[in-house]
TrEMBL record:
Reaction equations catalysed: a 1-acyl-sn-glycero-3-phosphate + an acyl-CoA = a 1,2-diacyl-sn-glycero-3-phosphate + CoA
Comment field on protein domains: The HXXXXD motif is essential for acyltransferase activity and may constitute the binding site for the phosphate moiety of the glycerol-3-phosphate.
Protein family: Belongs to the 1-acyl-sn-glycerol-3-phosphate acyltransferase family.
Designated name of the protein: 1-acyl-sn-glycerol-3-phosphate acyltransferase
GO cellular component, one term: membrane
Pfam families assigned to the protein according to its UniProt record, in alphabetical order: Acyltransferase
Phospholipid/glycerol acyltransferase domain boundaries: 105-222
Entry annotated with the keyword Lipid metabolism: yes
Pathway terms, separated by semicolons: Phospholipid metabolism; CDP-diacylglycerol biosynthesis; CDP-diacylglycerol from sn-glycerol 3-phosphate: step 2/3
UniProtKB keywords: Acyltransferase, Lipid biosynthesis, Lipid metabolism, Membrane, Phospholipid biosynthesis, Phospholipid metabolism, Transferase, Transmembrane, Transmembrane helix
CDD domains assigned: LPLAT_AGPAT-like
Enzyme Commission number, as recorded: 2.3.1.51
Length: 272
């Protein structure tokens, strides 16, 4: 028996072993998915995370000619909606007639989970020119950070407040110049609890400085998700409501009437 035959046999045996291991892994994952709610939680999030990473990064060659263009996110957004359906999510959108069309706006969204990527994937093709703000550390998660940059994500350094404010204000000028929509999570961080976290003031500063409308996008509580118990139930219904836009004239209004209005509006839907 010559060396080529031996190598061919070894290669075949190796491929057979890999196929058997892969089959065993899929079988075990399927079994755990069926019998364990905790395993189902981790499997769904793992599938969601891997798919979204691939959805964001595989189209990068198509994005490179147009860096910073919001339309670069159309394909990743569509693929994100596909995987959301696969893991059991469904959604209804109300108030589309309230979407600001003839000017830019600051869009505020309550922040609950990494599943909020689905909310962005839903609204992206609806609102037109759009961008989001993210912490700078996300940019260094390559290649996802590169993809985020290519579709126009604004990365800010939370530790350097003056630089972060300048970056936000520079980008916010596009709200007036190009009728762009700046999507922000006013709570600043995600959480699964029934209560809202205190609002950060950055979004309101942008709206006051540039005199552009604020549009709350209210997302219902993820009742199907229990982060503490690690449960992800089959009924993944999400409701989102595009509320009527409004203006803030001064920082006095910011500290009193307007924050209460926005929080009251969100709590009304969020707590249901």
């Amino acid at each position: 028996m010559d060396a080529a035959t031996v190598l061919s046999g070894a290669s075949y045996a190796g491929s057979q072993l890999l196929a058997q291991v892969a089959f065993a892994g899929v079988f075990l994952a399927t079994l755990l998915y069926v019998v364990s709610s905790r395993a189902r939680y981790y499997i769904k999030f793992s599938v969601y995370a891997v798919w979204c990473m691939l959805a964001a990064t595989l189209p990068i060659p198509l994005m490179l000619p147009w860096p910073g263009d919001h339309r670069n996110a159309y394909i990743p957004a569509w693929l994100c909606r596909v995987v959301s359906r696969l893991i059991g999510l469904s959604w209804t959108v109300r108030g589309q007639e309230n979407i600001v069309k003839n000017s830019g706006a600051v869009m505020l969204i309550n922040h609950q989970s990494s599943l909020d990527l689905t909310i962005l994937a839903i609204l992206w093709p609806l609102v037109g020119r759009c961008t989001v703000i993210s912490k700078r550390e996300i940019f260094y998660i390559w290649p996802f950070g590169l993809a985020s940059y290519l579709w126009g994500t604004l990365f800010i350094d939370r530790k350097d407040r003056s630089a972060a404010t300048k970056s936000v204000n520079d980008t916010a000028r596009a709200i007036n110049d190009k009728h762009a929509k700046l999507c922000m999570f006013p709570e600043g961080t995600r959480h699964c609890g029934p209560e809202l976290l205190p609002f950060k003031k950055g979004a309101f500063h942008v709206a006051i400085t540039h005199q552009c409308p604020i549009q709350p996008i209210v997302v219902s509580r993820y009742h199907f998700l229990d982060c503490k118990a690690k449960k992800f139930s089959a009924d993944g219904g999400i409701r989102s409501l595009y509320c009527s836009p409004f203006f803030i004239k001064s920082f006095i209004n910011l500290a009193t009437v307007k924050i209460k209005f926005v929080k009251g509006c969100i709590v009304k839907i969020f707590g249901r």
